[in-house]
Amino acid sequence: SYVLTQAPSVSVAPGQTATIACGGNNIGSYIVHWYQQRSGQAPVLVVYDDTDRPSGIPERFSGSNSGDTATLTISRAEAGDEADYYCQVWDSTVDHSRMVFGGGTKLTVL
Amino acid sequence: QVQLVESGGGAVQPGRSLRLSCVASGFTFSTHGMHWVRQAPGKGLEWVTSISYDGRNEYYIDSVKGRFTISRDNPRNTVYLQVSSLKPEDTAVYYCAKDKGSGYCSGGRCYVRVDSWGQGTLVRVAS
User: Fold this and answer.
1) B34-39 and B18-25 as β-strands: parallel, antiparallel, unpaired?
2) Residue A30, number of CB atoms within 10 A of its CB
3) Which residues of chain B have a CB within 8 Å of the CB of A101?
4) Most buried by CB count within 10 Å: which residue of A16, A67, A69, B36?
């Protein structure tokens, strides 16, 4: 089955740029989505269809996807960006169709 | 404003059953795929099951096939998850989740993503 790999944790200083990677075999051929989950809360969609932002999500959040790595970039990081971030794809083959999440990356804003 | 309100969780013994419900409002329910995603304590998100907008297609993670059943009642704006033969490893917060659209694949690329989540209902399986 398809596997998405994320680093367990990433740290960033306030005002700097955080980069959260999501690795998968030829992930560039998939459509990737990103979710933010603050402590004790339900997830929130922050980037969908590789690069698009839902309404209400700051322009500081951006995504890219190519080759074997998709990336969520958070510019000008703020304390409120501290959260777990998950990448997600839908894996559809002849044998199965399923939603796949990465293991999540905990972002710490130091 | 989209709202998803789950209910039906609780503490149960292994082998027992529960029916989770999710009542939706604020959007045209019958045109959106729906999903259940769970999160075990201290763990990441795990997709459980999805149902197409018209209820004709269902998808499950392997670990729940034959034990869990998703269904929907479009006139009642409700999606259900019947969970049976529960195991301790099923202990988790279960989130009801709305697809951004109907959820579809085109040209080998699949547009299935969640744009709204409920607050979750806790299922605890222990003897």
Assistant:
1) unpaired
2) 24
3) 37, 44-47
4) B36
Interface of A with B in 5-24 (CB under 8 A): none
- List the structure tokens of A43: 């997830």
A3 at interface of B, judged by CB pairs closer than 8 A: no
- CB neighbour burial string for B23-60, b if at least 16 within 10 angstroms, e if fewer: bbeebebeebbbbbbbbeeeebbbbbbbbbbeeeeebb
A58 touching B (Cβ < 8 Å): no
One pLDDT digit (tens) per residue for chain A, 110 residues: 899 999 999 999 999 999 999 999 999 999 999 999 999 999 999 999 999 999 999 999 999 999 999 999 999 999 999 999 999 999 998 888 999 999 999 999 99
Alpha-carbon Rg for chain B in angstroms? 14
DSSP structural state of residue A48? B
Determine whether the interchain pair A33/B47 forms a contact, defined as Cβ–Cβ distance below 8 Å. Answer: no
Q: What residue has token string 């998100």? A: B45
Cβ–Cβ contact A45 with B under 8 A: yes
Identity of the residue in A88, A98, A103 whose CB atom sits nearest the CB atom of B59: A98
Q: What is the distance between the terminal CA atoms of chain B, rounded to a whole angstrom?
A: 40
